Amino acid sequence: MRHAMSIEPTPTSIHRAPGEAASYLEITDLWKSYGDFVALRDISLSIAKGEFVCFLGPSGCGKTTLLRAIAGLDLQSHGKILQGGRNISSLPASSRDYGIVFQSYALFPNLTIEQNIAFGLENAGRSRAEITARVTELLETVGLSAHGKKYPAQLSGGQQQRIALARAIAISPGLLLLDEPLSALDAKVRVHLRHEIKSLQRKLGVTTIMVTHDQEEALAMADRIVVMNHGVIEQVGSPTEIYRHPKTLFVADFIGETNQFPAKVLPDGQVEIGHSAFRCLTEDFATGDTATSVVRPVDIIPHGAYAHAVNAIDRPTTPQNLIDAEVREMEFLGMFWRTRLTAPRLGERTLVADFSVNAVRRLQIETGGVIQVEIPQDRLLLFPRGA
């Protein structure tokens, strides 16, 4: 039964995978409320067969609630879910075609690894010979053939995660659901296992949805990312699209690092930031509009002490939005240096810039020094103030 809501749901456009005429999972006009609290608002999304999609967002954004609705663990208040053309909107979890891996893995501690993997196959009525062959195949697939007789407590966290995956895919489900499967692991193991999961998903061709709050994890693993905030979808796109072309200030700020400055739109493709005019893409704004300008630290280009000293062979185009800056702080982060700069043209606001180790050495950038940096016109993004 549809739950009474203070805001009446209205149809919205469905986010589809580019080039896909049809979809394997189709979610239309989905809402979920708990009393007066609306956890999901007007969600419509299309996921193609074999696609790896990440639901990404901060805690409380609705991503896990959406996953549970798809799984039938927490039915939606309103809306429709189709899987492979079959309406599963009101089906119990036991009647849906999916495998799921939880954050805690939820392995049976009193069963061996082989018995854990075989559990779903036994419930499906498979023959003993078929179960044995399938368990052997899956243990080999996840690289744990020698551990079948062990119990979960005898395995590391990363190994338990792989067994949970093997159990989830044992019955060859049409949909694989992953609820923050790597969050309980240390950073190095997580990086290793996210590549293993992605490789396994590609090998199996199973449609996969993963919930995560880790931006790097989503960027590294997903074919498409669904960015959520306060129960709504902010943007859907490939990792490159989400990172390079955010549609909202929330997406720009949540995915990666940003510098943000108040700005005023000027004529002729310029904005005023601090005390100066900067070239910027202003097509969606009118002269006089106030906005928030955003540039990522990684997009800022160092030119050393004097930009005109850069050889034209190295950089044939004229530098854009060139500013003098003083290096106030430098923080070594292994792959790059994170620097904090102040610049008169920015009204003495702090500008965070990430420079490669080679650039810092070549240009002799050091704390207390003065350099020139460029903010490329196409990487200076504008968003409505307060968006």
From TrEMBL:
<dbReference type="InterPro" id="IPR017666">
    <property type="entry name" value="AminoethylPonate_ABC_PhnT2"/>
</dbReference>
<keyword id="KW-1003">Cell membrane</keyword>
<dbReference type="Pfam" id="PF00005">
    <property type="entry name" value="ABC_tran"/>
</dbReference>
<dbReference type="InterPro" id="IPR027417">
    <property type="entry name" value="P-loop_NTPase"/>
</dbReference>
<dbReference type="InterPro" id="IPR008995">
    <property type="entry name" value="Mo/tungstate-bd_C_term_dom"/>
</dbReference>
<keyword id="KW-0547">Nucleotide-binding</keyword>
<protein>
    <submittedName>
        <fullName>2-aminoethylphosphonate ABC transporter ATP-binding protein</fullName>
    </submittedName>
</protein>
<keyword id="KW-0472">Membrane</keyword>
<keyword id="KW-0067">ATP-binding</keyword>
<dbReference type="InterPro" id="IPR017871">
    <property type="entry name" value="ABC_transporter-like_CS"/>
</dbReference>
<feature type="domain" description="ABC transporter">
    <location>
        <begin position="25"/>
        <end position="255"/>
    </location>
</feature>
<comment type="similarity">
    <text>Belongs to the ABC transporter superfamily.</text>
</comment>
<dbReference type="InterPro" id="IPR003593">
    <property type="entry name" value="AAA+_ATPase"/>
</dbReference>
<keyword id="KW-0813">Transport</keyword>
<dbReference type="InterPro" id="IPR050093">
    <property type="entry name" value="ABC_SmlMolc_Importer"/>
</dbReference>
<dbReference type="InterPro" id="IPR003439">
    <property type="entry name" value="ABC_transporter-like_ATP-bd"/>
</dbReference>
<keyword id="KW-1278">Translocase</keyword>
<dbReference type="GO" id="GO:0005524">
    <property type="term" value="F:ATP binding"/>
</dbReference>
<keyword id="KW-0997">Cell inner membrane</keyword>
